[in-house]
Specification:
703 residues, mainly alpha, two-stranded antiparallel ribbon, 2% strand
């Protein structure tokens, strides 16, 4: 082989031509006009149809970079899907920053105006959820690279996504040695009675025996003391204490207008068209005493009542548990009798409550299958009344009573959809509605106390009842009514918060942020107007007690959930970064919790202005507004130099004024007022000291 052959020329490579900026700009213009192949197709040597975006880039999922952009070279970049993990993590961080900025803007707007900022309209708030697809493994994608939780607001030295707070709740010891547990989501109000009932309340006054029949009063004492005394009181005696029909209808209407929003045992047509006519048959004169058997066999769910004339038809009496349901309905109806004074409505409602409890006890654990729905109704109403009363253990009684109602409902198969058993349509809708009332109330009580619920939705396939209040929007979309909204929030908001925050294993912060996103995506139906105007909507709507209570209750579903969700991380931010909580890795929770607390207080003040007679009787006013007041008060007390301390102090003052007006209504409100007054004094001193130090520093600064 000749030597010259070994020195043959290697194939020459085409030299890259260096283009001037003018030439590059000209190429870019031609690509935008579709005259040249796009940059990504040219890089990959693919056939380009020169459209914008081209079909090749659209098929590969990278139309956003066509026609002038290219993906970075390297293995795995031939398809854009290979880079989605990093892209989604970036979108998630940007969404977190947007949420933090929205919270900051809302806080600032609330300090200068009562109107919503134009940038916080519902349609604009949904933009950040458009393409966010975040999962619980984002912390692994980010590795050890520090990242910003809220953009310029705070920078963490290390990722907070994988951080957990080992907060497993509070275990209290009572005066008599009883122990009670309150989980991570429990509100501050749950500790009021435990810590302060002996020092802030007057001795309990005995109930007025004149308002309750002696037999019933004696039974109530035996029941409370845990003794088993055989009482001679029969259903006949209980029926003898029914009110006149006109008063019964008044109490029933009061229940439908107010208390049914919290627990609707039956619809209005069933109560007025079926139940009340059963108790007040038209063939019997209400002015004359009814002839009732001296005793009723409790092994049967109903009995026959003889009439005055032998030839008349027999009338069927309700089961004892249906009678208990009616008496508890009367108790809640009289409790919300806005025309009665505090002393009158409390004593009358207590009378109906004791009568209902007596009617409930004989069959409470051995109800016949035919009366299972009546048992669930009665237990749910009893628990609802307990949550309204101001007794020491009322909240625990409500939680236990609703849990028992849930177990009875599960025992009768209400958690499975009744359509599976081919029941008639009326029964299907009735069982669905009753189940979701029990489920919603059980979850609500569990969230407030931080305790596990009796119902896990993984075992439930019961569908929502038909939304009879649904309407159509201007665009033709279906708008859900109040009851569907209530059940939807319980299923998609409260339940995930419980399963996440109350689990034995503490959740990571990335899980909390993901729940925050899901809750913000839920919005109230357009038909609800929590902040109506007296001048625009008129006095009939503005001062309507039913609408005021319904709108306020509906507005609290999202804000209260946000407060429960972020409260632990809010406290951590305050404890670890008191000088500037915005520098905490949990600054997002700090802003979210404060914003939710501020909204709760302002909504309660607006509610009081609309209907002041209802506010002192609503149980969640004490629970949620007190917790919100403690949240804003903590901001001022521990971080008086914070940029939101001034507005937080104003919110605390509004909450204090509200509880001062409601202090005479119940012991819980009096305790809350006393505690908030002390907190307000400490907050005032802390903020005044900060202002004084600021002025002194300014005076000694050299000019």
């Amino acid at each position: 082989m000749p030597a010259a052959a070994s020195s043959a020329k290697a194939p020459s490579r085409r030299k890259e031509k260096h283009l001037s900026p003018e030439e590059l700009k000209d190429i870019e213009q031609k690509r935008l006009k579709g005259e040249l192949s796009c940059a990504e197709c040219r890089r990959l040597k693919l056939r380009c149809d020169k459209k914008v975006p081209c079909s090749s880039c659209s098929r590969r999922g990278c139309e956003s970079i066509c026609p002038c952009g290219i993906l970075e070279a390297g293995a795995g970049t031939r398809f854009i899907l290979a880079s989605t993990d990093l892209l989604h993590s970036k979108i998630s961080l940007m969404s977190s920053r947007i949420r933090a900025l929205e919270d900051a803007l809302a806080i600032f707007q609330a300090s200068v105006s009562s109107e919503r900022h134009p940038l916080l309209e519902d349609e604009l708030l949904k933009i950040k959820f458009g393409s966010e697809v975040k999962n619980s493994e984002e912390s692994e994608i980010l590795g050890t690279e520090g990242h910003m939780i809220t953009g310029s607001i705070t920078t963490a030295n290390q990722s907070a996504d994988a951080t957990t707070l080992d907060a497993f709740g509070t275990l209290t010891l009572g005066e008599e040695g009883e122990m009670k547990y309150f989980g991570r989501s429990a509100g501050s109000e749950t500790l009021i009675l435990v810590r302060c009932v002996s020092s802030l309340t007057s001795p309990a006054q005995p109930e007025d025996k004149n308002t309750v029949p002696p037999e019933v009063y004696a039974l109530a004492l035996d029941f409370n003391q845990g003794t088993q005394v055989q009482s001679s009181l029969t259903v006949s005696d209980l029926l003898a204490h029914l009110p006149p029909r006109s008063h019964a209808e008044t109490l029933a209407q009061s229940y439908i207008d107010h208390a049914s929003l919290f627990f609707r045992a039956m619809k209005k047509d069933e109560l007025f068209d079926i139940v009340l006519p059963l108790l007040y048959p038209s063939s019997i004169s209400l002015s004359e005493p009814m002839s009732i058997p001296e005793a009723i066999d409790f092994s049967t769910s109903q009995t026959t009542m003889p009439t005055h004339s032998e030839g008349s038809n027999n009338h069927t009496l309700p089961s004892p548990h249906l009678l208990a349901t009616v008496y508890f309905t009367f108790a809640l109806g009289s409790f919300f009798d806005l025309s009665a004074s505090i002393k009158i409505y409390v004593s009358e409602s207590q009378r109906w409550f004791e009568l209902g409890r007596k009617a409930l006890t004989p069959l409470i654990f051995a109800a016949a299958p035919s009366s299972a729905e009546d048992t669930v109704r009665a237990l749910g109403l009893m628990a609802t009344y307990c949550s309204m009363s101001g007794k020491k253990h009322a909240r625990d009684s409500a939680w236990c009573g609703m849990s028992l109602a849930a177990k009875v409902a599960q025992g009768s198969g209400m958690h499975r959809d009744p359509a599976r058993w081919h029941m008639d349509p009326v029964t299907v809708q009735r069982r669905r509605a009753l189940w979701w009332e029990v489920c919603t109330s059980d979850i609500s009580h569990s969230v407030a106390l931080g305790r596990p619920p009796s119902i896990h939705l993984s075992f439930v396939d019961c569908e929502f009842p038909t939304d009879e209040e649904a309407t159509l929007s201007d665009t033709g979309e279906e708008v859900m009514g109040f009851w569907r909204m209530k059940y939807t929030f319980a299923k998609e908001s409260f339940a995930p918060v419980i399963s996440t925050t109350l689990s034995a294993k503490s959740p990571t912060y990335s899980t909390i942020v993901d729940l925050d996103r899901k809750i913000r995506e839920l919005s109230l139906p357009p038909g609800f107007k929590p902040y109506v105007s007296l001048y625009d909507d008129g006095p009939e709507i503005y001062h309507n007690s039913h609408l005021a209570l319904r709108d306020f209750y509906a507005s609290q579903h999202r804000t209260v959930t946000m407060l429960y969700l972020h409260r632990s991380f809010f406290a951590h931010a305050m404890l670890t970064h008191p000088s500037n909580p915005l520098m905490s890795p949990f600054a997002l929770s700090f802003l979210a919790a404060y914003r939710a607390a501020s909204v709760i207080i302002k909504a309660a003040v607006h509610f009081y202005d609309r209907c002041s007679a209802v506010v002192p009787r609503v149980w969640f006013l004490t629970y949620h507004v007190f917790s919100a007041a403690m949240t804003v008060g903590t901001v001022v007390k521990r971080s008086p130099n914070s940029s939101i301390a001034k507005s937080a102090l104003n919110d605390l003052g509004q909450a204090l004024n509200l509880f001062e007006k409601c202090a005479s209504s119940s012991p819980r409100n009096r305790i809350a007022y006393a505690l908030l007054r002390r907190l307000k004094e400490k907050a005032d001193r802390a903020y005044a000291s900060f202002l004084s130090n600021t002025k002194e520093s300014a005076s000694i600064t050299p000019k």
